[in-house]
Amino acid sequence: MIGMVKERARAAMKLQYWPIVGLELLAGVLTGGAVSFSYNQSSIDKFRETIGNDEVFRRIMGILLGVVITASVISLLYTFLVGNVIHVGVAKYRLSAYRHERVRITDLFAGFRQYGRLVGTMALYTLFVTLGFFCFIVPGIIVALGLFEVPYLLNEDPSLSGMDVIRRSWENMKGHKGELFGLVMSFFGWLVLTILTFGVLAIFYTGPYIALSEAGYYHELHHNVDAENFTANSFHE
């Protein structure tokens, strides 16, 4: 199935290439709420020597620490209250693109129509995946693969509660985690080329290609539409 999914993802990209690239760029901006800060003791020591006054140094560092904490809190709140909801809208747009339906910028914000349900569910989703990676890399990957369907199910079945969505995804992915992991790993060569192009290829090809392939995997698992419905010269409204 992996080969078929990738072929149909490429056909979908040809059909609406620039709208897809544009929406992926916008989605990356809107969901990129996380902020990270690096700590370098040698740089701090050099800065302290430059200041030359311990009292002034402590005041400056106190201000900087306050800025870092404030920015981190704002970033975290944005991720949970806005970014995660847009992430569900991104899943909706990618499914539409894969199905050869005309994509719209409003798809990215579709999740706000069921805001309360999505915020809670995606918070649980983020928490479970994070806890999985805290245990170690392999458990984290297993949890992420098991909950892969959460954003898609939130779009497709509004009747499910948050925990029902999480349980449904976990059940649906039993026996399919290895195949999904194989799909992701099949892009390894493209990821190497992306690194060699300093990320430019990710914007114009590999990013959208991988994204639509993942959405396609969900679609094929549950809908299994015949190939005749995936013509490269028509839209389904």
Give an overview of the whole structure.
The protein is an all-alpha fold and 237 residues long. It has helices at residues 2-15, 17-31, 41-51, 54-98, 115-135, 137-146, 150-156, 162-172, 177-185, 188-196, 200-222. Helix 1 crosses helix 11. The radius of gyration is 21 Å and the shape is globular. The chain starts with a helix and ends in a 15-residue tail after the last helix. 27% of the residues are buried.
Features:
single chain; 237 residues; 11 helices; mainly alpha; globular
Task: Report a brief summary of the structure.
The protein has 237 residues and is mainly α. It has helices at residues 2-15, 17-31, 41-51, 54-98, 115-135, 137-146, 150-156, 162-172, 177-185, 188-196, 200-222.
Write the layout of secondary structure elements.
Elements (H helix, E strand, L loop, with lengths): L1 H14 L1 H15 L9 H11 L2 H45 L16 H21 L1 H10 L3 H7 L5 H11 L4 H9 L2 H9 L3 H23 L15
In round numbers, the mean pLDDT is 86
Give the count of structural domains: 1
Number of helices: 11
Helix content: over 70%
- Coarse morphology: globular
What gap, in angstroms, lies between the N and C termini?
26 Å
* Unreliable sequence segments: 225-232
- Secondary structural class: mainly alpha
How many strands in all?
A: 0
H/E topology pattern: HHHHHHHHHHH
Radius of gyration, in Å, reads 21 Å
| Share of residues in strands | under 5%
The largest sheet, given as strand count, sense and whether it forms a barrel, is: none
